[in-house]
Each structure stands twice: as structure tokens, then as C-alpha cells.
């Protein structure tokens, strides 16, 4: 699978460990930065990650920051992306199965490496269920107007 990964400065170490693990697992990984602990703005890296997932360059993405919250908000600004902030594997699987999430967000200050790996493993191995969930996912991309809601 083609996976894009990006972080802010707070999650550089977790990003590096997850990048190496994803490659060991056989995935093609695009590391979108940053490469140092110098302070950066998470929206810049979240927007870049969202672009490569939305345009199909990557099949899915892993977004990381200190809490996972800021970068998940940035990623979700792109209408072609559904980013889920995750802290355990069941939510990761349900985000894929029910919501067709294509980006997972994790907090480096809140999630250890083993839990992060378990979450990503559940995320990349769980297919979207479709069916009744497709109608709901379609509404995320094309919300009904206030008059018809």
C-alpha cells in the first residue's frame, strides 16, 4: 500500500519509527516531513498530507502531532479526505469499516509506539464495508442543504 506520513516537530521521533516499521511491513512510504525537532506549524504538514491522499498519490495517510488533534483538524479541511483521530485499534478498524477513513491521526504525546503500530495495522487491513455506510460517507462529501436536512 502507498502510505503518506507527516507530523509536526512533537511527533518527529514517532514518525521516524512508524515510517521504518511501515517499510518493514512492505508498504511504500512517502515521508512528507518534517525531518527535525525545529518548531513547525502542523497545518502546513496536515494540508500537504491531505493533498497527496486526496489526489490519489497515496492510498492512505498517517498524521501525527503532539495530541493528534491539531493535525487531524488540518487534514480534514480537505473535502477529499476523511481523517479519524484514533487512540486504540477498534476505533481504527471502525473508522475504515464504517466511515471509509483514508487518514489516521495519532498523538505522539498520548500514544506509545506499540499502540500506534496496532492502530495503523488495524487501519490498513480493514476494508470499507460499503452498504448502508456508503450513503453516509457520500453525505460527508456532499452535505445536504439546510432546507433538505
From TrEMBL:
<feature type="binding site">
    <location>
        <position position="109"/>
    </location>
    <ligand>
        <name>D-ribulose 5-phosphate</name>
    </ligand>
</feature>
<keyword id="KW-0413">Isomerase</keyword>
<feature type="binding site">
    <location>
        <begin position="66"/>
        <end position="70"/>
    </location>
    <ligand>
        <name>D-ribulose 5-phosphate</name>
    </ligand>
</feature>
<feature type="binding site">
    <location>
        <begin position="8"/>
        <end position="9"/>
    </location>
    <ligand>
        <name>D-ribulose 5-phosphate</name>
    </ligand>
</feature>
<comment type="similarity">
    <text>Belongs to the LacAB/RpiB family.</text>
</comment>
<feature type="binding site">
    <location>
        <position position="136"/>
    </location>
    <ligand>
        <name>D-ribulose 5-phosphate</name>
    </ligand>
</feature>
<feature type="binding site">
    <location>
        <position position="132"/>
    </location>
    <ligand>
        <name>D-ribulose 5-phosphate</name>
    </ligand>
</feature>
<dbReference type="GO" id="GO:0004751">
    <property type="term" value="F:ribose-5-phosphate isomerase activity"/>
</dbReference>
<dbReference type="InterPro" id="IPR036569">
    <property type="entry name" value="RpiB_LacA_LacB_sf"/>
</dbReference>
<dbReference type="InterPro" id="IPR003500">
    <property type="entry name" value="RpiB_LacA_LacB"/>
</dbReference>
<dbReference type="InterPro" id="IPR004785">
    <property type="entry name" value="RpiB"/>
</dbReference>
<protein>
    <submittedName>
        <fullName>Ribose 5-phosphate isomerase B</fullName>
        <ecNumber>5.3.1.6</ecNumber>
    </submittedName>
</protein>
<feature type="active site" description="Proton acceptor">
    <location>
        <position position="65"/>
    </location>
</feature>
<dbReference type="GO" id="GO:0005975">
    <property type="term" value="P:carbohydrate metabolic process"/>
</dbReference>
<feature type="binding site">
    <location>
        <position position="99"/>
    </location>
    <ligand>
        <name>D-ribulose 5-phosphate</name>
    </ligand>
</feature>
<dbReference type="Pfam" id="PF02502">
    <property type="entry name" value="LacAB_rpiB"/>
</dbReference>
<feature type="active site" description="Proton donor">
    <location>
        <position position="98"/>
    </location>
</feature>
Amino acid at each position: 500500500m502507498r502510505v503518506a506520513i507527516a507530523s509536526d516537530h512533537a511527533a518527529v521521533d514517532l514518525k521516524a519509527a512508524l515510517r521504518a516499521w511501515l517499510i518493514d511491513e512492505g508498504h511504500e512510504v512517502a515521508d512528507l516531513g518534517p525531518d527535525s525537532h525545529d518548531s513547525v506549524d502542523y497545518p502546513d504538514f496536515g494540508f500537504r498530507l491531505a493533498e497527496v491522499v486526496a489526489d490519489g498519490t497515496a492510498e492512505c495517510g498517517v498524521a501525527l502531532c503532539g495530541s493528534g488533534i491539531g493535525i487531524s483538524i488540518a487534514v480534514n479541511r480537505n473535502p477529499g479526505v476523511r481523517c479519524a483521530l484514533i487512540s486504540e485499534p477498534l476505533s481504527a478498524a471502525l473508522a475504515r469499516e464504517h466511515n471509509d477513513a483514508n487518514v489516521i491521526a495519532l498523538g505522539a504525546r498520548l500514544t506509545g509506539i506499540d499502540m500506534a503500530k496496532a492502530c495503523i495495522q488495524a487501519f490498513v487491513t480493514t476494508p470499507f464495508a460499503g452498504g448502508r455506510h456508503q450513503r453516509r460517507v457520500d453525505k460527508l462529501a456532499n452535505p445536504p442543504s439546510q432546507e433538505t436536512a
